[in-house]
Amino acid sequence: MVKETVFSLKGLYREDFKIEAYRFGHGDKSAAIVGSLRGNEMQQLYICSQLVKTLKYLEAHGAITHNHEIVVIPSANSFSMNIEKRFWAIDNQDINRQFPGDAYGDTTKQIANAIFERVKGYSYGIQFASFYMPGDFIPHVRIMEAGQQSPSLATLFGLPYVIIRKPKPMDTVTLNYNWQMNGTSSFSIYTNSTDLIDEASARQAVSSVLRFLTRMGILKYNNHSGYIASITNEDDLMAVKSETAGFYKRLKNPGDFCAHDEVIAEILDPHEGEIKAKIKSPTEGIVFFAHTAPMVLGDEVVYKILRRMHE
Amino acid sequence: MIENIVSVELPVHENLVIKKKRIMPKGLDSKALSKCPRISIVTGIHGDELDGQYIIYELIRHMNMHEDDLKGIIDIYPCVNPLGLDSGYRGIPMFDLDMNRVFPGMSNGAFAEYVAANLINDIIGSDMCLDIHSSNKFIKEMLQVRLNDDNEEKLLPYAKTLNADFVWVYSSLPVREATLSYSLNHLGVPTMVVEMGVGNRISKSYCKQLFEGILNLLKEVGVFKGNTLPVKEPIVSKEGEVTFISAKDSGLFVPNIENLGEIKAGDYIGDIIEPIEGRILQHLESPVDGIIFTIREHPVVYKGALLCRIYHKD
């Protein structure tokens, strides 16, 4: 393992900000892996730390195939993470909205540029990502339909689902999209946590990456085959909205089956405790996304359901 | 007439309401009104941008006094991020989201996308839209109109009516695809962006200047026939005519200039200093003769932070 500094920035009074990369093996640029780009992505950083630990062990035992190089950048925003802020510490810019970056641009554009310069040109790009809505997902691989996507490759992670997303304007400045535009097969891995560590899904994410790297011939490693993934377009997920606002009582978790018309959530008046609304499932299927916050707005997406899907 | 274009219930006994003030000629039936030109004016996408508040106050006050001069519809969206503005926060507070990065939105999407889609749907049908911004707390801007070069031919004549000091025509950047102006232009509503001043403040002289320009624009598009004052001929800047000066090191930026405007090559702009060592890290002088139209306002800078922009002809 070789540790490199990808980017550094002098603080006025804080210690220097550094983005560090961990390189394993040598030869062809095979896989680049990026962890937390945002300061609240604890789970994403934790997964990367476990991956670095495992790759270090595997490299020491000769398990990285000849002529393959893997690079891991666990964290790109420690400045914000250390002060419990989600976006860039001073101007609140989202680093994952600055790609491909600009070497002469604003600070966050320079950060994005340094990351992108280091991770571009690899055959496979893997990012541990988070969603902007407060909620939990079924662990899945997400790919963007930007012209170079490969759903069949995404199934090789062995996670239960592969979601294909049609890029929206705001996606065009993300790492995943720019990786793909630059010729890298890019994948975002979502687990069911962001701000808190979920050990089980973190382990699942680490295993899925090791499985993928093994199937691509980059690692010599023996692990479970995982799932034969179902591939779904994001637009086919059925959004269920909250109808009214108040305390939110979630009755289903990601991965649960729900029947048509089954009550899947209750909304309570925040002062009087009475049930204001019972949210019923408009379809039968598997809960793919579930809102987590204790309260909910009046017209908020609280579930996304994989329609007519069964366990 | 004030109407609610979006209403979303908040968790504890409050509603988020986005309002629209419609000013229209009196005595016309709906058929006649539908034939009138219509202009939309949007402010407050960012909760820390307050100049638009003063401008629409002046505009509504003026129109109240000159109702007979109104020949078309003015739709004013005074604050499309009310939770941000009322809490002194730039983005949408609960989601920490920049509202001007979620357009065109999606009516079946998450909260911000839903609000964005409703706003877009309400504006569609306007003959023109003006999106008023006040920079942010980090940067001070001269009163300027910004146009994407895709729309230059169509919009530059209108931009020149706005009494701005400066019109900046720049090429598309990907991030701008998710803005209100990009989305509306894409959907057939010619839209201009105005930037001025600095976040969290009201720059009254710029507000007065733009207010006169808006009256002039309203006249140009046939919405208003009252008296207007002569407007400034703005400097029009195109690709390659703007020099960006950024921080080469992290430190404290201490500007040496009080006002934006003309600058000569070699003029002292400011320094980045390192207080604890008592030394200058970067001494800034203008590399060109030109117009300084942007200057750093917040002193703490990291490497790469924008310090100023200078327009130069050569």
Order of helices and strands of chain B: EEHEHEHHEEHEHEHEEEEEEEEE
Structural class computed from helices and strand pairing of chain A = alpha/beta
Described by strand count, sense and barrel closure, the largest sheet of chain A is: 9 strands, mixed
The number of helices of chain B is: 7
* CATH-defined superfamily of the largest domain in chain B: Zn peptidases
Whole-Å distance between the termini of chain B? 50 Å
Give the DSSP E fraction of chain B (strand runs of 2 or more residues): 25-35%
Structure in words:
Chain A is an alpha/beta fold. Chain A contains six helices and 18 strands. In chain A, a hairpin with a 7-residue loop joins strand 1 and strand 2. Chain A starts with a strand and ends with a strand. The model of chain A has no long low-confidence stretch (mean pLDDT about 95). Chain B is α/β, with parallel strands linked by helices. In chain B, strand 6, helix 5 and strand 7 form a beta-alpha-beta unit. At the A-B interface, helix 3 and strand 17 of A face strand 1 of B.
Which secondary structure elements does this structure contain, and how are they paired or packed?
The complex is a heterodimer of chains A (311) and B (314).
Chain A: E1 2-9, E2 17-26, E3 28-36, H1 42-60, E4 68-75, H2 78-81, H3 107-119, E5 124-128, E6 135-137, E7 140-144, H4 151-154, E8 161-165, H5 175-181, E9 185-190, H6 199-215, E10 230-233, E11 237-241, E12 246-250, E13 257-258, E14 263-268, E15 275-280, E16 285-291, E17 295-296, E18 301-307
Parallel strand pairs in A: 3-4, 3-5, 5-9, 7-8, 8-10
Antiparallel strand pairs in A: 1-2, 2-4, 6-16, 7-9, 11-18, 12-14, 12-17, 13-16, 14-15, 16-18
Chain B: E1 2-10, E2 14-23, H1 30-34, E3 38-43, H2 51-65, E4 73-77, H3 82-86, H4 111-123, E5 128-133, E6 139-148, H5 152-159, E7 166-170, H6 180-186, E8 191-197, H7 204-220, E9 235-237, E10 242-246, E11 251-255, E12 261-263, E13 268-274, E14 279-285, E15 290-296, E16 300-301, E17 306-311
Parallel strand pairs in B: 3-4, 3-5, 5-8, 6-7, 7-9
Antiparallel strand pairs in B: 1-2, 2-4, 6-8, 6-15, 10-17, 11-13, 11-16, 12-15, 13-14, 15-17
